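> example.struct
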């Protein structure tokens, strides 16, 4: 089979996003050009000052200005030289519709993906405008949330698929004997002004020790002896999950999430996951067999207390959740292969 040439555009700052797809496609023997959009707003290698830094950040946020124009010119030039079969835009906000139109005329198939919610009401109207305009040019769009399928279609995208989140085998894995100690119950996610704070307070009131991320939770329950604010959680994320007995999932109401990345990262460590009940998560794991679900605060607290006291049941659920994760193939390479399968079907249909 012909080697697929992929032009991947995205922010390379964090390993779990576009960089993970780059690594996955390399493993799948694709020829990949990684166009790192964040390079155009990084002044670390230039002589900069406060004004230039401020101007660069403004251009990044508004997706307007000379740096954005330069990014688009370079994107087009790379496409002209590299001649990709597939152009995959991962959460890109800076690439103009006209740039995509020119690339499409070169014969490339264009896919747009966002693991965010570009149609969320909390974003300023200008923030995702280029991405939204590009959807009508794309051969296919990929969404993180099912609710965005209609949004993509209404924006003119004819072929829309859900591309769920994933875990990364090199980053999320089981450790038999973790070298660190953490509270038995962890939530390694960000603070949001919803009920998650009240749920954690309810555990603390029961005398249950809970670990959270210091950098994200600030002065939340600052003097509570049962709350442990953890440092260096990004680097120690996998070890901490392995060392915990129960790891909590909360869902972002701002993003209208019905599942999250942690639904894959937690089972990968053979730690029991407790998550809010949604049809999405319940379709991935059997209730009280492969994961534990809650529907309200009282049920949440009762189940955490129960499984802390019933180790054998907890470990069996964690083990079955781990096996289900592997069986259903939720690793990033599986997602990258799904994209290639859709691309091949489109190419054959032409």
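> example.seq
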């Amino acid at each position: 089979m012909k080697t697929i040439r992929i032009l991947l555009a995205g922010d390379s700052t964090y390993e779990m996003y576009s960089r993970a797809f780059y690594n996955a496609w390399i493993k799948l023997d694709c020829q990949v050009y990684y166009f790192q959009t964040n390079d155009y707003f990084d002044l670390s290698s230039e002589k900069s000052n406060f004004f230039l830094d401020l101007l660069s950040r403004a251009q990044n946020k508004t997706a307007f200005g000379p740096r954005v124009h330069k990014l688009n010119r370079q994107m087009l030039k790379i496409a002209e030289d590299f001649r990709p079969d597939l152009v995959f835009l991962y959460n890109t906000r800076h690439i103009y519709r006209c740039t995509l139109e020119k690339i499409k005329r070169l014969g490339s198939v264009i896919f747009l993906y966002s693991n965010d919610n570009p149609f969320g009401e909390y974003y300023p109207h200008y923030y995702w405008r280029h991405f939204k305009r590009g959807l009508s040019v794309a051969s296919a769009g990929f969404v993180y949330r099912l609710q965005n399928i209609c949004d993509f279609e209404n924006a003119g995208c004819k072929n829309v698929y859900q591309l769920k989140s994933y875990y990364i085998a090199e980053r999320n894995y089981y450790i038999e004997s973790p070298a660190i100690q953490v509270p038995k119950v962890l939530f390694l996610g960000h603070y949001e002004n919803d009920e998650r704070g009240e749920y954690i307070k309810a555990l603390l009131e029961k005398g249950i020790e809970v670990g959270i991320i210091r950098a994200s939770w600030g002065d939340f329950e600052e003097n509570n002896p049962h709350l442990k604010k953890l440092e260096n959680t990004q680097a120690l994320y996998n070890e901490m999950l392995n060392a915990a007995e129960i790891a909590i999932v909360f869902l972002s109401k701002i993003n209208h999430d019905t599942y999250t990345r942690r639904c894959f990262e937690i089972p990968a460590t053979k730690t029991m996951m407790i998550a809010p009940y949604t049809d999405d998560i319940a379709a991935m794991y059997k209730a009280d067999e492969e994961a534990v679900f809650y529907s309200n605060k009282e049920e949440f607290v009762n189940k955490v207390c129960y499984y802390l006291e019933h180790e054998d049941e907890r470990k069996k659920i964690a083990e079955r959740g781990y096996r289900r994760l592997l069986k259903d193939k939720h690793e990033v390479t599986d997602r990258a292969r799904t994209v290639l399968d859709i691309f091949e079907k489109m190419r054959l249909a032409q």
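> remarks
The radius of gyration is 22 Å.
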